[in-house]
């Protein structure tokens, strides 16, 4: 565990040598700073999800409309690549911090309790969504890898991409590709699980990120709490609806 | 309220010293009055052990009225036992049933090493306060009390935070052994009051740095600390600490 | 051992008009120049209000301070449990308060058994305390507009008590603790937690250090310094059941007494009227319900003896609001000693309530009807919560049951105006000394005294001793250090070697019950004589039959308790002896032989207007009484009346 922590602290050590970055690295390397980075990266990824869902809802508008959108996106060229790199960096940061703070937290507990119970009453998941962040995060990560293989690389094993092929036998009909992937039973299953995990992850993550950024006020907490949960499950439900749509439309 | 007598099965963590591995030991205790406090029940157990020639169970306690923060104990997996807003010394045996098995463990955190049995070392908290949990005003420097106006409602927020008794239940209950509730209570109290403003940047940065140095975990906003806190300190103070930290990170002049 | 030469003690109270004494004295005191302060080291034992504030203030001045406490953190000191508030003559309420009135109330409240000059100084610096604490960030209650709020308190007719909900002691202590921890951070204060003082080191007649036991490792440690400041609180736990924290003890003070420091007025013990009654023989401590509750609660018992009806079934006409009846002008706010005795009188007469008949009602029905439950909850919510936790009864719905309990001890080591004991270099602050409260302490005055001593008195007076004494450097292997260390070690060995059959607690309970019966709220010659006899017997039995398991070289809580109870066994005899010798009733000391026809205390100013300071001459020898006459130049002692 200590070796892991040492390895994970390497980037910070290297960055701190870069002139002018010292204070930034210092404030980011405390447990509070790390959680703030975690929150910022998490909320950024959430922003991506909102945009992604908004785009994907074009599926409901029909083949032409969706493909136009996809085409417009692809024609951004280097901008898209830059955005994707940024997105990847956010993921890497978010996951890296999750692993490093998780390891640190294990060390902080030391010997574990023989019995540990919550005092927060009953919740649907034992211990509440916050106790499942690592598990749901890993499920989402697995789902994400599948998703990239299926949709971006279009080499998902067991997926029949035939309807999406153009004259040169390249799968460039994105609308048909999405339908092909989502209507593959194994994929529908993985995506459903992944998206439910995403919902759980966000149902704690969004509010938690806001709290980490200091957003908490007695007057607004109640409404904020429910807005965050609503956003989390709206995102998850939006994506899930597409899977159901694809299965139904087969 | 009527008095009942309970027979209990106590599973108590015994550890002869900081370097001993420690293990659970089970004791039978009968005739425990429901009017007893939890610590009085342990007193009775210790009297029984002494009579049998076994060394009594060491546990921290002092005021026994819920304010000094010295008592601790993880009781059936819950810091200070099953009640909210309660210290172990205020927990009464009427919360238990005849025949119950009660598991008693010390606070568990790398920053709170076990000294003996149920006694842990919480001096990490003192070092965090020494790092910045104060207002630097030498004796004799103070202006008239009423020259510093603090609106009643602000004052109440400060008092909510200041109510922390420093028992460490937040650390014990947190799945990450994080001390954020403790640290934020002091940061928040002094951030809300005008007296604390001159040092607010240095205070939060130094206290957080010391908290990390002591080896506490990080906050994942689970709010288990708030539920376990005998003084009902709210996690809203953690949010204020985060704000103070962000602010100080950007604006600190050194 | 330091021997006291004469029978009368010099209090070193400066001359001049009362109002100018402290100013004049501060000018007359020798100063230590700033560069030299860092050459001196001062030991502070105990980190409550007095110790914490003294350690912080002296470190701020530049002295090196070593601070010791037996708890795991200095923030646990029992000052933290004070609920109600702290007095100060600010007159913020424009209700006629003044330094003189606070002085007068405190002196009168103490039944004219305190030193005028000390009490006046206390009233003078009280205002600075509030300012200092506010600056530290102590969250005193405020009005909506932001000014400081006050409430009234027992024994006073003005509102001069500053408070932080029901946790004033906690907040003031944390203020002092934080000030001290700031100095720990700078390195000026070295903190030694989980250390218990076992011996005082006296070299050439001067207090120069302490032997402490590291409670974690069992190691004995020697610490030397240029002066020793004792802030170790009161001895109320000699009664076993009290509102003190379990760890409170007389050991540090008694060890000093054994080295020659005089112990003054040990019989002045305060029995607080509003505590939760005893519920069983397993009871380990009593819980205080703040006196501030009497601002809104009304105290009563049923008119009929043995009336077992539930309180809401008893109509007003069949209730006896005995405080309002007996003391119409102060009513439920009568001072503590008077309220306690009145409760005992009603219970002795058979009108007590509850299973044991040893309780009276404190009823909020009328206040809730008048102000609404929310107002009452805001004022006393945490106290009501605490009561509910302990008794499982809801004080919003039914009256609290309360009974008096040992709460504070006005007696303590004798000190002069500089707060120095008769052992030069040994200063005693806060509850551990005897100085300011006379025979009875008014509510919200203990916090005031602890902080006054630590923040505003000792920092001035200690310089005089340091500047004028010959203080050669002494090393840990000095014969006096070695001897003190050996004495402490021998005692530990002796306690463990007894290997008897009875636990320490069983002895402590027996001693406590004996004192409560014979030397509690009411005392008599016959009872005290018997008590002294039985204490001696119990002490012999203790050293024959106590069972302390484990060793002296580990964390051993039985051993800690055993040492403290051993000292209580010796001290209890002195307490009873003092009570026996004081043939009058005053404040917390009530002798049945000396009362008026109405059952009020009958003070005897002609024969007993003095401080009784006792010199220890050996456990089996009679202590020697030294007297400090009390001179009242400004206030003529009158019969205290709260009618």
Please, could you describe this protein's structure?
The complex is a heterotrimer of chains A (250), B (254) and C (643). By secondary structure, chain A is an all-alpha fold. Chain A has helices spanning 2-8, 10-15, 22-28, 31-56, 63-74, 78-109, 133-152, 174-182, 185-212, 221-248. Chain B is of the alpha+beta class and 254 residues long. Chain B folds into two domains: 5-116, Beta-grasp domain (Ubiquitin-like (UB roll), Roll); 122-251, Alpha-helical ferredoxin (Fumarate Reductase Iron-sulfur Protein, Chain B, domain 2, Orthogonal Bundle). Chain B has eight helices and seven strands; from the N terminus they run E-E-H-E-E-E-E-E-H-H-H-H-H-H-H. Chain B has helices at 38-51, 123-132, 152-162, 169-173, 180-192, 200-213, 224-228, 236-251; strands at 5-14, 23-33, 74-75, 78-79, 101-105, 114-116, 119-120. Chain B has a five-stranded mixed beta sheet with strand order 2-1-5-3-4. Chain B has a two-stranded antiparallel sheet with strand order 6-7. In chain B, helix 5 (180-192) crosses helix 8 and helix 6 (200-213) crosses helix 8 (236-251). The longest helix of chain B is centred in the C-terminal third of the chain and has 16 residues, at 236-251. Chain B is elongated, with a radius of gyration of 20 Å. The model of chain B has no long low-confidence stretch (mean pLDDT 96). Among the domains of chain C are: 272-405, Flavocytochrome C3, Chain A, domain 1; 485-604, Methane Monooxygenase Hydroxylase, Chain G, domain 1 (Up-down Bundle). The model of chain C has no long low-confidence stretch (mean pLDDT 95). The interface between B and C is large, with 82 and 84 residues.
How many helical elements of chain B?
A: 8
Distance between the termini of chain B: 61 Å
What is the first-to-last residue Cα distance of chain A? 49 Å
What characterizes the major β-sheet of chain A? none
Helix and strand composition category of chain B: alpha+beta
Note the total helix count of chain A. Answer: 10
> What's the domain count of chain B?
2
Q: What's the alpha carbon Rg of chain B, rounded to whole Å?
A: 20 Å
- Uncertain spans of chain A, ≥5 residues at pLDDT below 50? none
Q: Return the average pLDDT of chain B rounded to an integer.
A: 96
CATH hierarchy, class of chain A:
Mainly Alpha
Overall number of structural domains of chain A: 1
Shape of chain B: elongated
CATH superfamily of the largest domain in chain B: Alpha-helical ferredoxin
CATH fold node name of the largest domain in chain B:
Fumarate Reductase Iron-sulfur Protein, Chain B, domain 2
Q: SSE order of chain B, as H and E?
A: EEHEEEEEHHHHHHH
The CATH class designation of the largest domain in chain B is Mainly Alpha
Low-confidence stretches of chain B: none
């Amino acid at each position: 565990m200590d070796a892991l922590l040492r390895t994970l602290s390497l980037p910070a050590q290297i960055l701190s040598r870069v002139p002018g970055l010292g204070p930034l690295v210092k404030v980011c390397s405390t447990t509070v700073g790390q959680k703030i980075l975690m929150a910022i990266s998490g909320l950024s990824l959430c922003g991506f999800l909102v945009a992604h869902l908004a785009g994907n809802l074009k599926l409901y508008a029909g083949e032409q409309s969706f493909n136009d959108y996809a085409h417009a996106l692809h024609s951004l060229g280097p901008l898209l690549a830059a955005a994707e790199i940024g997105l990847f960096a956010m993921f890497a940061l978010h996951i890296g911090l999750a692993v490093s703070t998780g390891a640190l937290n294990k060390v902080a507990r030391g010997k574990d309790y023989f019995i540990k119970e919550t005092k927060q009453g009953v919740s649907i998941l034992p211990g509440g969504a916050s106790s499942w962040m690592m598990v749901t995060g890993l499920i989402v990560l697995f789902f994400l890898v599948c998703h990239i293989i299926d949709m971006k690389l279009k080499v998902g094993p067991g997926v029949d991409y035939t309807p999406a092929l153009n004259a040169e036998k390249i799968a460039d009909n994105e609308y048909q590709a999405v339908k092909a992937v989502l209507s593959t039973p194994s994929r529908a299953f993985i995506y459903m699980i992944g998206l439910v995990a995403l919902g759980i992850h966000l149902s704690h993550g969004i509010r938690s990120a806001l709290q980490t950024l200091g957003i908490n006020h007695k007057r607004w907490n109640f409404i904020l709490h429910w807005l965050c949960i609503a956003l989390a499950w709206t995102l998850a439900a939006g994506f899930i609806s597409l899977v159901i749509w694809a299965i139904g439309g087969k | 309220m009527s008095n009942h007598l309970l027979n209990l099965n106590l599973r108590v963590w015994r550890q002869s010293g900081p370097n001993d591995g420690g293990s659970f030991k089970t004791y039978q205790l009968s005739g425990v009055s429901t009017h007893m406090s939890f610590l009085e029940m342990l007193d009775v157990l210790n009297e029984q052990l002494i009579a049998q020639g076994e060394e009594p169970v060491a546990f921290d306690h002092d005021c026994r009225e819920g304010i000094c923060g010295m008592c601790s104990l993880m009781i059936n997996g819950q810091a200070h036992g099953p009640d909210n807003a309660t210290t172990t010394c205020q927990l009464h045996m009427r919360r238990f049933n005849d025949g119950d098995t009660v598991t008693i463990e010390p606070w568990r955190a790398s920053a709170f090493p076990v000294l003996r049995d149920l006694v842990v070392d919480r001096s990490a908290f003192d070092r965090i306060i020494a790092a910045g949990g104060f207002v630097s005003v030498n004796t004799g420097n103070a202006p008239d009390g009423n020259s510093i106006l603090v609106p009643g409602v602000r004052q109440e927020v400060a008092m909510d935070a200041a109510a922390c008794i420093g028992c460490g239940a937040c650390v014990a209950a947190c799945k990450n052994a994080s001390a954020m509730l403790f640290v934020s209570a002091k940061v928040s109290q002094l951030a809300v009051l005008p007296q604390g403003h001159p040092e607010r940047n240095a205070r939060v940065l130094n206290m957080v740095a010391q908290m990390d140095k002591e080896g506490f975990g990080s906050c994942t906003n689970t709010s288990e600390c708030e539920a376990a806190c005998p003084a009902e300190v709210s996690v809203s103070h953690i949010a204020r600490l985060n704000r103070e930290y962000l602010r100080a990170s950007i604006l600190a002049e050194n | 051992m330091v021997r006291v030469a004469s029978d009368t003690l010099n209090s070193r109270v400066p001359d001049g008009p009362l109002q100018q004494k402290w100013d004049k004295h501060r000018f007359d005191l020798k100063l230590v120049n700033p560069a030299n302060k860092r050459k001196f080291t001062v030991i502070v034992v105990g980190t409550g209000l007095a110790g914490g504030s003294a350690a912080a203030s002296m470190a701020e001045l530049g002295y090196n301070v070593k601070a010791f406490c037996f708890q795991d953190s200095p923030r646990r000191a029992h000052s933290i449990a004070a609920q109600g508030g702290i007095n100060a003559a600010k007159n913020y309420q424009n209700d006629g308060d003044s330094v003189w009135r606070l002085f007068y109330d405190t002196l009168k409240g103490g039944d004219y058994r305190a030193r005028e000059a000390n009490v006046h100084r206390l009233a003078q610096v009280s205002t600075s305390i509030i300012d200092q604490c506010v600056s530290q960030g102590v969250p005193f209650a405020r009005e909506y507009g932001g000014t400081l709020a006050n409430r009234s308190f027992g024994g006073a007719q003005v509102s001069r008590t500053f408070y932080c909900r029901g946790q004033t002691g906690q907040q003031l202590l944390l203020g002092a603790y934080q000030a001290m921890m700031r100095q720990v951070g700078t390195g000026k204060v070295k903190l030694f937690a989980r250390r218990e003082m076992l011996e005082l080191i006296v070299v050439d007649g001067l207090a120069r250090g302490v032997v402490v036991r590291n409670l974690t490792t069992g190691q004995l440690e020697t610490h030397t310094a240029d002066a020793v400041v004792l802030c170790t609180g009161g001895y109320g736990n000699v009664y076993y059941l009290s509102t003190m924290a379990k760890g409170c003890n007389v050991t540090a003070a008694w060890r000093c007494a054994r080295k020659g420091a005089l112990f003054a007025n040990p019989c002045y013990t305060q029995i607080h009227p509003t505590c939760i009654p005893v519920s069983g023989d397993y009871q380990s401590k009593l819980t205080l319900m703040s006196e501030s509750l009497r601002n809104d609660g009304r105290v009563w018992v049923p008119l009929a003896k043995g009336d077992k009806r539930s309180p809401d079934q008893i109509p007003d006409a069949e209730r006896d609001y005995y405080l309002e009846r007996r003391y119409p002008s102060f009513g439920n706010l009568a001072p503590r000693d008077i309220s306690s005795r009145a409760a005992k009188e009603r219970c002795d007469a058979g009108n007590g309530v509850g299973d044991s008949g040893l309780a009276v009602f404190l009823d909020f029905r009328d206040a809730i009807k008048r102000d609404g439950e929310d107002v009452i909850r805001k004022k006393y919510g945490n106290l009501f919560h605490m009561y509910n936790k302990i008794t499982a009864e809801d004080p919003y719905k039914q009256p609290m049951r309360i009974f008096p309990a040992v709460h504070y001890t006005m007696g303590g080591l004798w000190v002069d105006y500089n707060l120095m004991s008769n052992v030069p270099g040994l200063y005693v602050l806060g509850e551990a000394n005897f100085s300011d409260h006379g025979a009875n302490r008014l509510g919200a005055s203990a916090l005031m005294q602890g902080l006054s001593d630590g923040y505003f008195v000792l920092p001035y007076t200690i310089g005089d001793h340091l500047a004028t004494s010959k203080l050669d450097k002494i090393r840990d292997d000095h014969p006096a250090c070695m001897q003190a260390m050996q004495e402490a070690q021998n005692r530990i060995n002796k306690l463990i070697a007894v290997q008897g059959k009875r636990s320490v607690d069983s002895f402590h309970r027996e001693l406590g019950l004996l004192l409560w019966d014979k030397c509690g709220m009411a005392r008599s010659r016959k009872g005290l004589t018997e008590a002294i006899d039985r204490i001696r017997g119990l002490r012999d039995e203790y050293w024959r039959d106590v069972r302390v398991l484990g060793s002296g070289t580990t964390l051993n809580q039985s051993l800690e308790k055993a040492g403290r109870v051993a000292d209580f066994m010796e001290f209890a005899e002195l307490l009873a002896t003092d009570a026996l010798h004081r043939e009058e009733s005053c404040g917390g000391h009530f002798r049945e032989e000396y009362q008026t026809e109405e059952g009020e205390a009958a003070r005897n100013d002609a024969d007993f207007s003095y401080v009784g300071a006792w010199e220890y001459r050996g456990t089996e020898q009679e202590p020697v009484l030294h007297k400090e006459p009390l001179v009242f130049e400004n206030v003529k002692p009158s019969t205290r009346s709260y009618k």
